[in-house]
Backbone:
């Protein structure tokens, strides 16, 4: 990763393990890049991981929507620009543009975040932290990461099911499964529903519950109106973990 200060861009070169059987960038790999750009941009504005650690708080992602016109491939260079769209009450809004090596925009994204206590991950009011006005909006955004409806119970009972576990390699510094792995699980769950000649052109995910080390998550997927919905349900408690909506073309 490299930062181009003159253009306010974060640059990434796509490596083989980040791509699929067609050499196309996995969405969970793209999410990792978007998350890294967001964290580094927050750091540039004075609220990166070290500062947040000192305040005993952390950033948590609640929703994200990504739409791609072109899926970059192995060895391609991509660039990400990200900026705050301000906050309202507890929620921070952040947008992204994704460019190819020639600075042509090939995708866009929008996201919703919250600041939470590091211990219990309960939300913290931005107004209680001095200097948060640095995240003022650059202007009104037309992008929305919409709230998704989970799969109805009666449909879920008939849906294909996969199992995934919260193993050591998936746990991040906040002591839960990193948000990028939920996206990878969603890609696994929907794979059989997408014809080989098609690609994922858009993905929206809502995070509703943390997954802790050792927990088991059941994944259900259904195809409706040309869109695939994936639900993650914790196996023991049956609590809803996430919902993803995937569009292919």
Residues:
């Amino acid at each position: 990763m490299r930062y181009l200060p003159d253009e306010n861009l974060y640059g990434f070169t796509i490596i083989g393990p980040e791509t699929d059987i067609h050499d196309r960038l996995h969405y969970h790999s793209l999410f990792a890049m978007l998350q890294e750009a967001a964290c580094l941009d927050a750091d540039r504005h004075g609220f990166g991981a070290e500062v947040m650690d000192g305040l005993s708080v952390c950033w948590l992602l609640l929703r994200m929507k990504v739409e791609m016109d072109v899926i970059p491939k192995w060895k391609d260079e991509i660039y990400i620009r990200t900026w705050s769209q301000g906050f309202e009450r507890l929620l921070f809004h952040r947008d992204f543009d994704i460019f190819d090596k020639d600075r042509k925009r090939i995708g866009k994204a929008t996201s919703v975040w919250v600041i939470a206590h590091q211990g219990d991950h309960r939300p913290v009011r931005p107004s209680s932290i001095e200097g948060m006005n640095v995240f003022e909006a650059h202007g009104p955004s037309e992008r929305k990461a919409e709230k998704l409806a989970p799969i109805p119970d009666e449909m879920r009972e008939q849906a294909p099911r996969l199992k995934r576990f919260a193993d050591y390699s998936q746990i991040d510094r906040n002591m839960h499964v990193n948000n990028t792995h939920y996206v990878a699980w969603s890609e696994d769950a929907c794979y059989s529903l997408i014809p080989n000649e098609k690609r994922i052109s858009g993905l929206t995910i809502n995070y509703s519950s943390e997954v802790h080390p050792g927990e088991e998550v059941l994944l259900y997927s259904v195809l409706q109106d040309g869109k695939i919905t994936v639900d993650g349900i914790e196996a023991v408690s049956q609590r809803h973990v996430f919902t993803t909506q995937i569009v292919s073309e």
Notes: The helical segments are 27-44, 49-54, 153-156, 179-190. Residues 2-135 form a domain with the Thiol Ester Dehydrase; Chain A fold (CATH 3.10.129.10).
